[in-house]
């Protein structure tokens, strides 16, 4: 980046920085080589002239926008081939390399579900023979797929799906049907006009018996002509709050036949004669969702880092109002209320990344155990993935909205990119398991764990703290990071105990457990949230502490400040809980508040350096407000001039409508 074009405010901010930004970049990427590899890919893609839009995508019609997204994503796939030649799914791990997609289209890629869910499902749910047949074709994009589970009538309640796959032993085929309107698949990304294959989750019937939902590999369009195959009704579901280029679709089947071996058979099988062989655990069918819930934490960390970069750089460039008479207007980043809006979002991005890595490692370990036939840790992984996905997506959406508000009016401009990021992040609260639904899954686990506490059993690692805080005494508070973590655990234990007690109190004679559960469900969600916050605080603090020891003292100090800010911010937010479940006093809270303000001041001089550490190229930020050089006003005007309305000084609607209206007014 040419430093001479950079605005004076950002030059000054960068001079103030107390740590080596490159070191932070390498830490986030996972090493120097990873940074170099990522930058190489980004450089090749972002400098390809075919990728640059002449007309910004938001001015295109819905149809043009999709076509443009497809054109550019095909170029991306072509370029990426060179870099992913040696890649097999076995060596997959979350990486910053994949964020290049945001440098190609501002909104979501129509191929997102192909890589994000179609391939992972083929890899994790097919038997070896199926894998060998399908995975290479999917990896090379010889076939393009999606994941079709949700229907018009059911999304959360998977057992309620209505699409049927009925086995016909005479032809050794499954017959797929969507018997009514509500059984139409609805939502899958890329399903409408992009994919020629999909994983269809359908109710399995064989020999007159119903065996629940199972995944099937289904070709829906002709490979050559792309025309939907006979018996397939497919189309697009229309514009949404975001995800405009994701090509979400609907899909119906009318006696559509697929070979028996198109049922994904790693876990359960249907033999030629229709005999059903049960899976070791029927929840393994839900495996792709667990995988994606884990990966979502990295996506959220990335989207937060984009929004943070935009809002922090803009706040350093923007001047507004005088703090003291006769003095220049302040950079808005110097208002402490602005720092309060910004820095927690910056720190949250780091927290999600490090907790995401911890969750990923847990996922890999549990999956390896499952491979050896040991399912013991699956419930704990499921409970963790559910609450972390739910809480982190909701927090990320709140932080992105705060970043948008922190940019005042300009944050409302599409050209700031904050509205598009907002759409992307808010969708994640709903997809892959809706917030409350997932929180209640974790609550189920917590209720079982509380039964374990009462029976004095040894609990699994992530809930073992419940035993420690099982009595009614308020926990001794200490104004230290260890004290804060312990306070959050005490709150989680207290809320778990109360939700458990609430269920018991609703369980009067004649009341079903399910009704009592429903009556207590607000408290159950609250217990899940508290449990999740305890995990976020404990894991992020221990991980950031560990990382701080692997870097230079200057960077280590910054990492710890960010981690402590996160803990302190949430202690203040949740002071009510802490007052209920610990001995925290108003004087302790005042000390926390003072420390929080101290941390804002400590982070302030490094704020621009810290977001530079996310190392997000301008083409990936896509923002008039957040570019590296800080030329905010020039960019806003340049982008405004691209409005098609500015192509002519007088729009024809004046002569057609406004002038006649004015003339009529004269009469
Ligand atoms: C880019 C955008 C892409 C988006 C894509 C999508 O959105 S794709 C679409 C994404 N769609 C969604 O995400 C839909 C969200 N909905 C769901 O995932 C499920 O319907 C459900 C989990 C809510 C309920 O399922 P259910 O009615 O079958 O279950 P139940 O409540 O009766 O519990 C029975 C037992 O099973 C356990 N268990 C459950 N799941 C798992 C698991 N994954 N692993 C392990 N275990 C699991 C549970 O803990 C319980 O154990 P317990 O306590 O008895 O020991
Ligand atoms: C942008 C986007 C992309 C998507 N992509 C895909 C895709 O590629 N493939 C795919 O298959 N699906 C996809 N989906 C669908 C998505 O997975 C579902 O929308 C999601 O799982 C929620 O289900 P639902 O829409 O049926 O909501 P509902 O379940 O109808 O939720 C409505 C309300 O009911 C409440 N509710 C429901 N059940 C319970 C309960 N048991 N207890 C308490 N409250 C409850 C919810 O909390 C919510 O407040 C996508 C959705 C979006 C928004």
From TrEMBL:
InterPro entries: ACOX_C_alpha1, Acyl-CoA_ox_N, Acyl-CoA_Oxase/DH_mid-dom_sf, Acyl-CoA_oxidase, Acyl-CoA_oxidase_C, AcylCo_DH-like_C, AcylCoA_DH/ox_N_sf, AcylCoA_DH/oxidase_NM_dom_sf. SUPFAM superfamilies: Acyl-CoA dehydrogenase C-terminal domain-like (SSF47203), Acyl-CoA dehydrogenase NM domain-like (SSF56645). It comes from the Eukaryota. Residues 21-144 form the Acyl-coenzyme A oxidase N-terminal domain. The active site is at residue 432. One of its GO terms (molecular function) is fatty acid binding. Its main location: other. Pfam families: ACOX, ACOX_C_alpha1, Acyl-CoA_ox_N. One of its GO terms (cellular component) is peroxisome. Belongs to the acyl-CoA oxidase family. This is Acyl-coenzyme A oxidase. It comes from Arctia plantaginis.
């Amino acid at each position: 980046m040419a430093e001479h074009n950079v605005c004076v405010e950002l030059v000054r901010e960068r001079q103030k920085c107390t740590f080596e930004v490159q070191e932070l970049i390498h830490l986030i990427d996972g090493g120097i080589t990873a940074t170099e590899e990522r930058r190489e890919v980004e450089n090749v893609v972002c400098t390809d002239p075919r990728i640059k839009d002449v007309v910004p995508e938001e001015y295109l019609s819905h149809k043009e926008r999709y076509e443009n997204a497809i054109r550019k994503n095909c170029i991306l796939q072509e370029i990426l081939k060179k870099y992913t030649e040696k890649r097999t799914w076995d060596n997959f791990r979350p990486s910053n390399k994949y964020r290049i997609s945001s440098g190609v289209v501002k909104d979501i890629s129509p191929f997102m579900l192909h890589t994000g869910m179609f391939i992972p499902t083929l890899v994790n749910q097919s038997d070896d023979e199926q894998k060998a047949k399908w995975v290479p074709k999917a990896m090379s994009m010889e076939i393009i797929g999606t994941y079709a589970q949700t229907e018009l009538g059911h999304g959360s309640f998977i057992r309620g799906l209505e699409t049927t796959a009925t086995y016909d032993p005479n032809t050794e085929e499954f017959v797929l049907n969507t018997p009514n309107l509500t059984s139409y698949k609805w939502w899958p990304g890329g399903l409408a006009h992009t994919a020629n294959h999909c994983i269809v989750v359908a109710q399995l019937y064989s020999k007159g018996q119903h065996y629940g939902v199972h995944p099937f590999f289904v070709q829906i369009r002709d490979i050559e002509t792309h025309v939907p195959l006979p018996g397939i009704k497919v189309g697009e579901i229309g514009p949404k709050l975001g995800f405009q280029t994701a090509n979400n679709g609907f899909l119906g089947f009318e006696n559509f036949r697929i070979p028996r071996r198109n049922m994904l058979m790693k876990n359960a099988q249907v033999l030629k004669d229709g005999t059903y062989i049960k899976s070791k655990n029927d929840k393994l069918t839900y495996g792709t969702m667990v995988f994606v819930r884990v990966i979502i934490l990295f996506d959220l960390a990335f989207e937060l880092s984009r929004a943070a970069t935009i809002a922090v750089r803009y706040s350093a460039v923007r001047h507004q109002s005088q703090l003291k008479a006769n003095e220049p207007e302040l950079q808005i980043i110097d208002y402490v209320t602005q720092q309060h809006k910004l820095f927690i979002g910056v720190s949250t991005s780091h927290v999600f990344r490090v907790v995401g890595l911890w969750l990923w490692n847990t996922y890999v370990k549990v999956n390896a155990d499952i491979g050896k036939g040991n399912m013991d840790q699956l419930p704990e992984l499921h409970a963790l993935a559910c609450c972390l996905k739910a809480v982190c997506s909701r927090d990320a959406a709140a932080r992105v909205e705060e970043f948008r508000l922190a940019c005042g009016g300009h944050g409302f401009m599409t050209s700031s990119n904050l509205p598009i990021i907002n759409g992307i992040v808010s969708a994640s609260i709903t997809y892959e398991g809706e917030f409350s639904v997932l929180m209640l899954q974790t609550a189920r686990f917590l209720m079982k764990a509380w039964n374990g506490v009462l029976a004095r059993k040894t609990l699994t690692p992530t809930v073992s703290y419940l035993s420690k805080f099982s009595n009614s005494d308020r926990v001794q508070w200490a104004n230290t990071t260890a004290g804060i973590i312990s306070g959050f655990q005490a709150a989680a234990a207290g809320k778990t105990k109360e939700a458990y007690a609430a269920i018991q109190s609703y369980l009067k004679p004649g009341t079903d457990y399910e009704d009592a559960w429903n009556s207590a469900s607000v408290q159950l969600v609250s217990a899940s949230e508290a449990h999740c916050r305890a995990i976020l605080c404990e894991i992020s603090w221990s991980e950031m502490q560990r990382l701080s020891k692997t870097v230079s003292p200057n960077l280590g100090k910054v990492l710890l400040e960010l981690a402590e800010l996160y803990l302190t911010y949430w202690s203040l937010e949740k002071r009510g809980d802490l007052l209920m479940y610990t001995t925290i006093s108003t004087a302790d809270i005042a000390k926390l508040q003072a420390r929080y303000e101290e941390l804002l001041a400590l982070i302030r001089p490094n704020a621009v350096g810290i977001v530079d550490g996310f190392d997000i190229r301008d083409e990936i930020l896509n923002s008039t407000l957040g570019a590296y050089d800080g030329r905010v006003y020039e960019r806003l005007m340049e982008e405004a001039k691209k409005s098609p309305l500015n192509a002519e000084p007088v729009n024809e609607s004046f002569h057609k409508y406004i002038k006649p209206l004015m003339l009529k007014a004269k009469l």
